[in-house]
Amino acid sequence: MKYLRPLAFLSVAYVVVLVVRDPCNGDGTSPSVRWFGNSPTEQVLFEKEGLSHFVRVTQSGTVRRLQFRRAGEDFDESAIDVRDRWQFPLQYYRLMLAAFAHDTEPTSVLFIGMGGGTLPMAIHHYFPAVRVDCVEVDPDIVGVAREYFGFREDDRLKVYQRDGRMQMRLFARDKKQYDVVFLDAFSGGFIPYHLTTQEFLELVKRLLVPDGIVVSNLRPGFASYAYQRRTYDGAFRNHATYGGEGNLILISDNRTTPPTMAQRLANAERLQKEKRFTVDLPAVVRAGATGGYYDRKGPILTDDFAPTDVLREIPVD
Amino acid sequence: MVRTIGVGSSVFACGWILMGLEIVGGRMLTPYFGGGTWVWGSIISLFLAALSLGYFFGGLLSRRFPQVWALAGIIVLAGAALVPVALAYPLVNERIAEIGIHERWGSLLAATTLFLLPSMLLGMVSPYSVRLVTHRVEDVGSHAGSLYAISTVGSCLGCLVTSFELILRFGIRQILLYSSAALLLTAVWLAGTWLLAVPRAERTGP
Fold this sequence. Notes:
The structure holds 2 protein chains of 2 kinds.
Chain A: H1 4-21, H2 23-26, H3 31-34, E1 43-49, E2 54-60, E3 63-70, E4 73-81, H4 91-96, H5 99-102, E5 108-112, H6 118-126, E6 131-136, H7 139-148, E7 157-161, H8 164-173, E8 178-183, H9 198-207, E9 208-218, H10 224-235, E10 238-243, E11 248-253, H11 261-275, H12 281-287, H13 308-311
Parallel strand pairs in A: 5-6, 5-8, 6-7, 8-9
Antiparallel strand pairs in A: 1-2, 2-3, 3-4, 9-11, 10-11
Helix pairs in contact in A: 8-9, 9-10, 11-12
Chain B: H1 2-33, H2 37-64, H3 68-99, H4 103-123, H5 125-133, H6 140-169, H7 172-196, H8 200-203
Helix pairs in contact in B: 1-2, 1-3, 1-4, 1-5, 1-6, 1-7, 2-4, 2-5, 3-4, 3-5, 3-7, 5-6
């Protein structure tokens, strides 16, 4: 048993090296001073170690934010303007409304990841006849949405508290279908890998009516973006993009004749007159996307192989 | 000496694969039961339950059949048990997820279905190997200590290498099939090294 001691020593030494190299523990500064400093005007309304995130609600001025803390950073997941809840302080909400230029009269929509519930509430407000189902994994988020973001359920706005993919499987089993599926499940700056794979998108397709659309919030700034886009390319025929800096909204469907740019603009203008969004929807549609380029050749994400744990951390230039 | 190295390295390999399996297990269940604390809690507790069964029955069996063939056979069985897991895990998870029970119980049931047998068989290896290398009662403590230490170092490295490297390079199914092949080779290696050398203790009789 002579070789035991060196082996044990090596493994302990390896663990020590890993811990020392960890950026969160590495430089000896107290994280509470170094990373989590609040801006002077920011007021913390709520903080809790939730089921899947460290959740906090803060307010600066009239803007109230829901944040998840990961790796020493607070990521904005949701925000409302407490003076006027139909102003959308986060850009990606405005972009996601572009979905209605693709489908002006949906009867049912599904949200995977609801955050503060801002967008589901807005859709419920602007399209009162639409059935809105939300799936949220974390019970604390549902509580926070009710308490701090004025989220109210009724017979046309429902929350299912479960992992997104698992709840979708149950919906598929029960043959539920939707006109629009919004994918907005984030876990502090990244999408959990099981909500990005080919198998997942097959499940999304089972939940969509034949002309249904899926609206995804992607982050083109990270290496995982190209993998996600290629995976969508394999699952859907048509793709339209909006935004591009920070968040890129991808709208995909399998229609035989997807709406042209002119049709989408006409839809947006008609809806804008009818609904009077605080957002200039025709401008969003007209602007389309900037950037968001990716290499069309390369691996896709599957349940078997999804190295997004590293990809999400790699920024692309 | 050759026998000690054979048994020691086999124990190391089994420890490595056991923890590699546990890490891969998390990735296997996540698409079906979510990526949260429940999935990890289910997997870790199931592995611990399976190990305790393995230790117990491994110890009993080693009393009944104190031969290297039996241990090699257990390792072969563990490797063979991984093949259906690798091939059928999406189907098994799908079926269990569609029952619609809470993620907690779904993930525990799936973890049990997939991992109870292989991890129990791998749990038998350590007590069995203690029996094989020990001929005098005074040595039991030190041999058991050394073998458990080696096995746990293997587990430690298997855990790190699988989570830091293998998952990001290979698919889950590939890792499972490689693990299965590695277990078969381990069994051959164990039996081979054992046959190669006949220690003094056995020349003069136990």
